[in-house]
Amino acid sequence: MNNQTLVIYDFNVLYEILKEIEKNLSFDLIKIKKNMLMRENIINQDNFLIISKKKINNINNQLIISQFPVELTKLIENININFLKNIYNQQSEINLGSYKLNLNSRKIFNKFKVLDLTEREANIIFFLKKSKKPVNVSELQKEVWGHNLKLETHTVETHIYRLRKKINNVFNDNNFIKSSRSGYTIKWRKKIILQKIYSLLSISPELSSLKKAKEALKEKKNKLKKCSKVLLLFVE
């Protein structure tokens, strides 16, 4: 079972269509008949999204479809984006080590610079941040695009490439999104560790790699050893 539930309200045609591809979706489906919403107690649950043809009064987390026809892949993407927004509806700024991501304004920033993102780019960063392991293309298709239906692999890879290029152009950081055979990751946890090392040892933030930080730490230790020898000579 998924943690997210799409509640399809008084919209049988849409339910039947999505039901056929349910195994390819990243959310569960529930169908509710007209005037039965309150009885089902859905609004007291977490991570739900109601989709309907008309606005329902006094209900949050709604997605209204009022214009037809609707492209299925675009609709699923829109549903998934709304789920992502709901997760952090009260926490707009997400910590990414030396950066922060604001989902509402779709901006990533540090102390000095700000970069505007597209909605898709913000969602990619958000999902990679949530994941504790590398994320492959298929997972990104399902979780960020909202489905794993036929979608060319290079579409995802092109989005990642452009996002990495944007971040590098503004922040001069080519290592924010790392790629490997297992998939894509964000090295934000390592950045937090490095920030603590910089703070404790007064190392310049320009030392952006762990290797350089270790070299600086080794140099600090050598200086401390020399100082201790001088101190012993002075005491004697």
Task: Name a few traits of the molecule.
236 residues; 44% helix; disordered C terminus; 7 helices; Arc Repressor Mutant, subunit A; alpha/beta; 4-stranded parallel sheet; 3 domains; elongated; 4-stranded antiparallel sheet
Average pLDDT rating: 78
User: Globular, elongated, flat, extended or rod-shaped: what is the shape?
Assistant: elongated
Oligomer classification: single chain
Number of domains: 3
Order of helices and strands: EHEEEHEEEEHHHEEHH
Question: What percent of residues are in strands?
Answer: 15-25%
What does this structure look like?
It is elongated, with a radius of gyration of 24 Å. The strands form 3 sheets. Strands 2-1-3-4 form a 4-stranded parallel beta sheet, with helices on one face. A 4-stranded antiparallel beta sheet has the order 5-6-7-8. Strands 9-10 form a two-stranded antiparallel ribbon. The protein is 44% helix and 17% strand. It folds into 3 domains: 5-87; 93-186, Winged helix-like DNA-binding domain superfamily/Winged helix DNA-binding domain (Arc Repressor Mutant, subunit A, Orthogonal Bundle), CATH 1.10.10; 189-235, no CATH class. It has 236 residues and is α/β, with parallel strands linked by helices. α6 packs parallel to α7 (210-235).
Q: Short summary of the structure?
A:
The protein has 236 residues and is of the alpha/beta class. It has helices at residues 12-20, 72-87, 119-130, 137-143, 153-171, 188-201, 210-235, and strands spanning 5-9, 28-32, 48-52, 62-64, 93-96, 99-102, 107-109, 114-116, 177-180, 183-186. 21% of the residues are buried.
